[in-house]
Amino acid sequence: MKEITQEVYLKWYEDMLFWRKFEDKLAAVYIQQKVRGFLHLYNGQEAVLAGSLHAMELGKDRMITAYRNHVQPIGMGVDPRKVMAELYGKVTGTSKGMGGSMHIFSKEHGFFGGHGIVGGQIPLGAGMAFADKYFKRDAVTLCYMGDGAVRQGSLHETFNLAMLWQLPVVFICENNGYAMGTSVERTAHTTDIYKLGLGYEMPCGAVDGMDPAVVAQEVYTAVERARSGGGPTFLEMKTYRYRGHSMSDAQHYRTKEEVEEYKKIDPITQVKEHLLENGFATKDEIKEIDRRVKSFVSECEKFAEESDYPPVEQLYNTVYEQQDYPFLPHKL
Amino acid sequence: MRTIQFREAIAEAMSEEMRRDETIYLMGEEVAEYNGAYKASKGMLDEFGPDRVLDTPISELGFAGIGVGSAMLGNRPIIEFMTFNFSLVGIDQIINNAAKMRQMSGGQFNIPMVFRGPTASAGQLAATHSQAFESWYANCPGLKVIVPSNPYDAKGLLKAAIRDDDPVIFMESEQMYGDKGEVPDGEYLLPIGIADIKRAGDDVTIVSFGKIIKEAYKAADELAKEGISCEVIDLRTVRPMDHKTILDSVKKTNRLVILEEAWPFGNVATEITYQVQNQAFDYLDAPIVKINTADTPAPYSPVLLAEWLPNAQDVIKAVKKVLYKD
Ligand SMILES: Cc1ncc(C[n+]2csc(CCOP(=O)(O)OP(=O)(O)O)c2C)c(N)n1
Ligand SMILES: [Mg+2]
Fold first, then answer.
1. Do residues B215 and B324 touch, judged by C-beta distance below 8 A?
2. What are the extents of the domains in chain A?
3. Domain A6-317 belongs to what architecture?
4. Chain B: residue nearest A181 by CA?
5. What number does the ligand 1 atom closest to the CA of A176 have?
6. Quick check: ipTM above 0.85?
């Protein structure tokens, strides 16, 4: 694996902070009703993404996840301004405003969505790996899902097929403890999610998902196994989300103390401490990063605000390849 | 009369029936401890306990099928889908098992159960979370499909659905749960398969159902100011359909507009159109107009969603068209 150097830690700090602040901004503009619909934020889970990106070969490997998906594409190289614009429903957005919060896509940057039906992306991830194997490309797919999603039949059917055909895919469950208001304990007999791999003899294990260095190492091993023809791996990342499931969630299912406990091992704080303790950055340098992040977030907001809404024709010209497709009229 | 919210009407209907009949249970995602994703089962875990109000994992295929299986052996399950968009994960159990069991077994097994939850769009939720499958389910023999539009109808029809001996699809809306309406204190049931004339009128018939009917009311109010009198019929039950109420009205007004939140191809409005042209052709003074969502998946962007979703203005235009006043 690429060494985890001072630069890597600096990048992790800046990236993760940017993701956090970017989403804090989304929450703020949501309250102003500039962004509507659902808004699922990644706050707290950033180390899973930062570590994974370090282990992947960007430009070659691919990623697919569920609806908690604003910052992954940014990590993979998508212009954050376009992600913000998508949430505003603007034509400059990643899907031209068609998808919104839950459906960010970037073919160019290897980000395959952004999926709203829980568990629906799991077979898709294996299918992407199937195509890469079919065409003998040596790319690997990282397929993410939540702790709730692993209870869908789609996971079990896909695990069997992925093992049978030894597909180059890494399945990563981001276990943030809850599926909406339901804890893992309340809906499963086996609560060690990684053990779901055992029945399929898929290499599997649990990982500290709050430390990007640990994540990077484990994901790297899995990615290289897949790349070298060793088939799939299933990793359970132990992580946490600080905010509610979406924006309207009173969070009666957990205590404030529990949230505070996790904030003590916050990935951004951990990386910041690592920077300071090892003399990788001074307090002033950290402040400079914080300033840069803040100003870029504002730039994203400005871009989204100033962009135009899509033209009405766009309702029709994204559905089929055939541009003169005979849609039925729906009103006079 | 007292006024309650739609979500309270749903909870009351389920609770009253569960008090009366111990074979009934409620099962679904977040129905118990969270009191329902939209609080439509508030207080039910407390009253009935975890054996009868059950939180499930996100396993629609599994719990839909468990509902059907238990119905074969004496339960009368109420299965909640957080929204009917997610029923697609479990639709095999509904179409292939719940709807077929009685006929395939020569009448040995009936499936007295209700699948319920919100349908159709609810703001900018984009393509996978804004779908209306009324016509899909209504297309399937063996099922009944109910789509109420106010708390009173919801309570009376849900109680009837729970008592019905066949599988019933019962569709609500996230955008209706907060709606308030008059609901009497005492027990009542409403018959399945009977439409309701919500506004009486002479000039034109508007047929609709579910939350979108509110756009028909707005249109009727506007048109009344211009002296145009609309009869608004709420289907309430999509299958079996109350053709008689529709035909009687069309024979009186001679004009028909249908408002349905669904894609236009082969939907409930299409079925009504066929029946009316077939049975009341000579009464029609104008071609029937149906108003639906655009023939595309729902877009996220607010400007496109406004174009996609039918509204009162669209109804007004349609009414004027069938009256040749445009
Ligand atoms: C098939 C399906 N059922 C239900 C839902 C509603 N829903 C959306 S997110 C969610 C919880 C998912 O939890 P988890 O997989 O742990 O992911 P997290 O939100 O924690 O990232 C539910 C039940 C859905 N979108 N799709
Ligand atoms: Mg979760």
1. no
2. 6-317
3. 3-Layer(aba) Sandwich (3.40)
4. B34
5. 20
6. yes
Q: Is the pLDDT of residue B75 over 90?
A: yes
Among B133, B154, B182, which residue terminates a domain?
B182
- Residues of B whose CB is below 8 A from A154: 89
C-alpha closest to that of B310 among B301, B318, B321? B318
Q: Measured between alpha carbons, how far is B130 from B122 in angstroms, rounded to an integer?
A: 7
Q: What is the DSSP string of A200-256?
A: GT--EEEEETT-HHHHHHHHHHHHHHHHTT---EEEEEE----S-SSSS---TTS-H
Phi, psi of A200 (to 5 degrees): -105, 5
Annotated active-site residue in B30, B129, B222, B243: B129
State how many domains chain B has. Answer: 2
Are residues B95 and B228 located together in one domain of the fold? no
Catalytic residue of the set B8, B29, B60, B261? B60
Interface test with A, best of B54, B291, B300, B313 (most A CBs within 10 A): B300
pTM, 2 dp: 0.97
Active site includes B80?
Answer: no
Angle at A159 between CA A156 and CA A160, to 5 degrees: 90
Rounded Cα–Cα distance for residues B59 and B63 (Å) = 6
Residues B93-145 pLDDT 10s: 999 999 999 999 999 999 999 999 999 999 999 999 999 999 999 999 999 99
Asked whether residue B86 falls in the same domain as residue B214, the answer is no
Ligand sitting nearest the alpha carbon of A117: 1
B60 catalytic residue (yes or no): yes
Residue nearest to atom 7 of ligand 1 (CA): A118
With beta carbons under 8 A apart, name residues in chain A contacting B58.
118-119, 148-149, 151-152, 179
How close are the terminal C-alpha atoms of chain A, in Å? 61
Q: Residue B326: is its pLDDT beyond 90?
A: no
CA B287 – CA B254 distance, rounded (Å): 10
Total residue count of chain A as it appears in this document: 332
B178 and B202 share a domain? no
Exposure on the CB side of residue A135, measured as CA atoms within 13 A: 8
Cα distance between the two ends of chain B: 42
Query: Do B204 and B174 reside in the same domain of the chain?
Result: no
Q: What percent of chain B has pLDDT over 70?
A: 100
Q: Tell me the three state secondary structure of residue B277.
A: helix
Ligand 1 residue neighbourhood (C-beta within 6 Å): A 40, 68, 116-118, 146-149, 176, 178-180, 245; B 29, 58, 60, 82, 86, 89
